[in-house]
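ok so i was messing around last nite and threw this chain in just to see what happens. nothing serious, just curious
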Amino acid sequence: QLSGGDMARDYAILCHGWIAPSVRKVRASVQSRVNKQTEVGGQGKSSATYLRVMQHALKQMHALSLAGVSIRTGRCHQIRSHVSHVGHPIVRDGMYAALATFDSDLTICAHNCLHRFRLAFRDAKGILRAPVEPLSPELIAALRN
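result:
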């Protein structure tokens, strides 16, 4: 199911900048590199990340967007590289945000603000299963503060 794109994965992210509500899909190839950032574009594997902007906020002089994200392909670092590629790195992402941004993010949250809250798949009997996990306490605290 994973390689066939039959598994749905839904995430919540808190990222930098105000993502325009019209940005609903990031389609770009993703190429993995051992112990390095994935490369977006070029010769990588096709992938698409779907965004739903839920809220914009201004916290400690940081413009932020809370977005729901869905993926079907699940390439290595796909969400992180795609949102950074369009100029909105995830809060506390030490690999895809500039070092100064990563360091200043401590005023918002101490943890990476990417959270998978739902995984949907069919079990061996073909029954749809979709467990849901509440947002992490750290992400909730970042949204409240």
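not much to say yet. The beta strands are 8-16, 25-27, 30-31, 39-40, 48-59, 62-71, 114-122, 128-129.
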